[in-house]
Amino acid sequence: MTNTMLNEKWMKFYGLQAHRFIALIVRWYLAYVFISASIHKILVPSDFALDIASYQIMPLVLINMMAIVLPWVELVVGIFLILGFRSQSNALLVSGMMCMFMIALGIALYGGLNISCGCFASGTLEASDPISITTMFRDLAWLLLALYVLVFDNRAIGVDAFLMNRRTKTA
Amino acid sequence: MDKNKTKEKNIKRTLYVIIRDAIIIVLFASVIAMVYNLIRSDGLEWVAKVPYEIFVPCPETLGTVEMIESSDPRFSDGRSLFIDARSEEEYHEWHYADALNLEYDYLDPIPEETMKYMSQNILKSGMARVIVYGDGEGEKGSSGYELGRELSGRGINNIYIVKGGVAALKELKP
To answer: Considering only alpha carbons, which residue of chain A is nearest residue B21?
Structure first.
């Protein structure tokens, strides 16, 4: 198979209308994950700060800043994913956050730390999910979903599509 | 050729827009976060002044220990090395015979140098067993019991814990 043929096949696959609808479902699912993950962290930032500290990776000066800002980034990204506003940028942010979480998890697992993931409702080890290889695979799955949106959702159903249509009409 | 160049240019432009918008979204969220943190009564300080007290139960290798009564004949056969797991202050106030002091820290493991020192001491002494005592009754969670388990987990064999803790020893040898 020549490069041109492969290229054509890829373009055909890339241009499928179905991607818009699959991406819509994926976006809503990721939005649900991120919004639900952010709520507790926003309401009780001290718990989240403690979770960050327990990973023993971040310097003290950055822990609180991260505990304050990160949940809001998650919430805003979640809302924008639902609305279909700048979907690819939000998917890029989700991918970035997932990579960051996976690196932190990897370091913690390698160091043999038996701590709470801090991914959703924070708190004690008993109350939430402790870090494990499963957590890593879960994050990897979310990363792959975000990458799907990043690559294929260039005409996202929602605000992006609405703005694009308006721009086309105006032009 | 031109078509390819235009395509490449478009891809670059799209990537630029995606990254630019991502940065704007992060900035937008950060501003909301900062404002919300400022107006809420229980907002966090921007920079934590005191390190967070985290208790991370690491998967340390904890060994097994046996309990020993103060009336046990092995207790007084002269072949036991005693270790006091209480604080230095308490140790100086009263300690059993020639007991060594190794204060048990619930948060930090025994430093490597201390472990080496202990192992050498045990080898030199030619003792058959190590008897650990501390606060409490010698039950799970007491300093003596926990220190004994840590020592055992780190390669020291024949660890015994005094049943009744330091109180039982004081009765035996006030």
So the answer is: A89
